[in-house]
Amino acid sequence: MSTIGTVCVTIRAVFKSHSFPSTLALQLYLQPSAYPSRHSNNYFRRPERPYRPFENIILKDLSTGEERVLPTKVLFVYIGTRPGTGWLDDLVLKNEKGYILSGGDVMKSPFYNTTWKLQRAPFLPETSVPGIFAAGDVRLDAMTGISAAKGEGSMVVRFVRKYLQEM
Q1: Is residue 135 part of a domain?
Q2: Residue 44: DSSP 8-state
Q3: CA 125 – CA 136 distance, rounded (Å)
């Protein structure tokens, strides 16, 4: 498997945090030693030039406010490993890290008997609320990655149809 460092001539690693991320998923593609230029405590934005491909990005240092323009041909974005499910706090069951319980994981929950109201077991992608489904990285123990999320999304469509037929 190729890493980014073996196919790109110049690599700049930009991190909003103060240090290089240590998550396993990111380490599979990035090798810290491959980056001669690391920019921590920064964020980037695209210059205001609509309808043009990326030619450069504006990098802003969050400590000093200094901005600089960097030439860019390709941009890889890694947004992290925390599920953005806070808005579902009072609706579906989640684990302590915020991943949504679905299918068999709902049945293992100590709250299963008080939250699940149907005679049948939850479908594989179905949450603790009948008719609400989860797919992709927000689901507990889901395979990660864009292609896996796409596949799970396709699977959810099948189960939504099945759910609607029951109604």
Answers
A1: yes
A2: E
A3: 10
Q: Confirm if 133 and 106 have CB atoms less than 8 A apart.
A: no
Which alpha helices (H) appear in the chain, and where do they start and end?
4-7, 24-29, 104-108, 112-115, 146-166
Cα atoms in the 13 Å half-sphere on the side-chain side of 30:
20
CB atoms closer than 10 angstroms to residue 131: 14
> Sign of torsion, CA 88 91 93 95?
positive
- Tokens representing 165? 């037929």
Reported pTM: 0.57
Residue 56 is inside which H or E element, if any? Answer: strand 56-61
Q: What total number of domains does the chain contain?
A: 2
Below-70 pLDDT ranges, the chain? 1-54, 73-81, 144-147
Backbone angles phi, psi at 38, to 5 degrees: -115, 135
CA 72 to each of CA 8, 39, 126: distance values in angstroms, whole numbers, following the listed order:
12, 15, 41
Range of the domain at 146: 86-166
